[in-house]
Write a sequence for this structure.
């Protein structure tokens, strides 16, 4: 399938709030005219649809631990916003550019490049808090209200154009360009003022969450300096979130109103950055040498995190003996750190030592049964070892905690298939396709599943209901 050109994708996401802005304060629903344009439920549905499209256009990072860390950090911030009950989903895009974005309905993405560019956890949190403010203030529907004529039909037209472009048919990209240009132009005045408003809300969220609000102006200032020194390669964050001197001054003034207290970075932040570096494109052996040199010279924020990245890079380079020794050092020093226990298990499995590898995973799972990344990795390991039934039970439990993870459904489909449960296998694969933006393939899988249900009337009814729900969603966004 052809990919959308970068400038068209950027315009698409910008028009739908992927670079969405926020209004200054939460207004009571009674006076919120945006509710007449798009309800919260409609906004969520739109966001879910755009997420499925985004999965086909962007490279989502397939690492459960990194995504879980960002989700946990995001939820910590949301709990201190003025709409703590709203459902948010945070995800990571594998992209070295410095950027983050919000989509309708509470979906927030962050690039791996931004995670590495943040010099502290508070800086990363400051960007997430800014994006959270865009959503909690319902700025996207407010932008549509400002446009007056830009309502759900225009959004449906855009989604139709996305489907057209994604199918490779002529005219789709032109339709996207026309529709998004219209939406963006109508919302531009509202956008400029709202960036500063989102900053002010974000500063308050940071402070309430126990993170240093001064991190926001510090991050913005560094981005501005990057702009001055390299105008030909402007960070994507600055293209979608223009930083001005007045914005920096305003956010600093507000941050200074809070009592300063030093907040150390969490272990999760340090390990996440180390893992992203270890898994970066390039020669794994060369990456491992970089970690080794940093350890030898003391150039790191955390020796444990640096050693963790070193061991991951060694594992990628298939230097199993050294990787095992480094993993052992970490688990002996921190026996309760689940990331180190998973690392040790993966070293054993990758080196062909299946029994000790699965034993390490089983021990870790008994100690941390509610940690979704562990369940996903353990389930995958059981599948590789031919234990499909055991894997299926663990994966089903994981899906209850992460029902929006397409990888879990793909693994469950494999486990159910190998266990001889064809209807369940097709049903799980349908959800995998659906979450990855391919509703047509999802319906096909559900129809295949219905051929094997036999006299299981409950499952048959469930399959038919799911097919109908997907068809109704397709009809909602289909243009006339």
């Amino acid at each position: 399938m052809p990919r959308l050109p970068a400038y068209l994708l950027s315009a698409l996401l910008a028009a739908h709030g992927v670079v969405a802005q926020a209004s200054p304060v939460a207004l009571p629903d009674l006076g919120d005219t945006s509710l007449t344009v798009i309800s919260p439920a409609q906004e969520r549905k739109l966001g879910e649809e755009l997420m499925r499209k985004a999965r086909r256009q962007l490279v989502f990072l397939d690492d459960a631990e990194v995504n879980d860390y960002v989700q946990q950090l995001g939820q910590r911030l949301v709990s201190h916003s003025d709409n703590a009950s709203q459902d948010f989903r945070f995800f990571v895009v594998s992209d070295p550019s410095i950027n983050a974005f919000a989509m309708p309905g509470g979906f927030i993405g962050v690039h791996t490049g931004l995670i590495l560019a943040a010099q502290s956890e508070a800086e990363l949190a400051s960007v997430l808090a800014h994006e959270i403010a865009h959503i909690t203030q319902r700025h996207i529907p407010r932008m549509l209200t400002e446009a007056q004529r830009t309502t759900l039909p225009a959004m449906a037209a855009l989604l139709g154009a996305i489907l057209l472009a994604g199918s490779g048919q002529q005219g789709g990209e032109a339709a996207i360009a026309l529709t998004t240009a219209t939406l963006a132009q109508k919302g531009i005045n509202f956008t400029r003022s709202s960036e500063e408003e989102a900053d002010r809300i974000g500063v308050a969220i940071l402070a309430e969450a126990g993170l240093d609000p001064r991190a926001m102006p510090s991050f913005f200032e560094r981005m501005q300096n990057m702009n001055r020194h390299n105008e030909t390669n402007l960070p994507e964050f600055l293209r979608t979130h223009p930083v001005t001197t007045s914005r920096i001054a305003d956010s600093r003034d507000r941050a200074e109103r809070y009592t300063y207290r030093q907040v150390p970075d969490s272990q999760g932040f340090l390990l996440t950055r180390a893992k992203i570096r270890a898994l970066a494109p390039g020669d794994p052996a060369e990456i491992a040498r970089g970690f080794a040199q940093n350890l030898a010279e003391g150039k790191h924020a955390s020796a444990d995190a640096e050693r963790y990245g070193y061991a991951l890079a060694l594992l990628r380079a298939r230097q199993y003996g050294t990787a095992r020794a480094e993993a052992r050092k970490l688990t002996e020093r921190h026996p309760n750190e689940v990331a180190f226990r998973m690392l040790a298990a993966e070293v054993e499995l990758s080196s062909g030592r299946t029994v000790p590898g699965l034993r390490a995973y089983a021990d870790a799972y008994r100690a941390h049964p509610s940690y979704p990344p562990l369940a996903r990795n353990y389930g995958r390991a059981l599948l590789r070892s031919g234990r499909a039934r055991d894997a299926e039970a663990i994966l089903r439990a994981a899906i209850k905690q992460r029902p929006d993870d397409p990888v879990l459904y793909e693994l469950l489909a494999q486990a159910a298939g190998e266990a001889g449960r064809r209807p369940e296998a097709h049903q799980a694969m349908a959800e995998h396709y659906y979450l990855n933006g391919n509703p047509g393939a999802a319906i096909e899988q559900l129809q295949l599943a219905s051929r094997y249900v036999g006299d299981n009337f409950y499952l048959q009814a469930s399959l038919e209901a799911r097919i109908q729900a997907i068809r109704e969603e397709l009809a909602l966004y289909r243009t006339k």
In short: The chain is about 70% helix and 5% strand. Residues 285 and 317 are 5 Å apart (CA to CA). The mean pLDDT is 83. The radius of gyration is 23 Å.
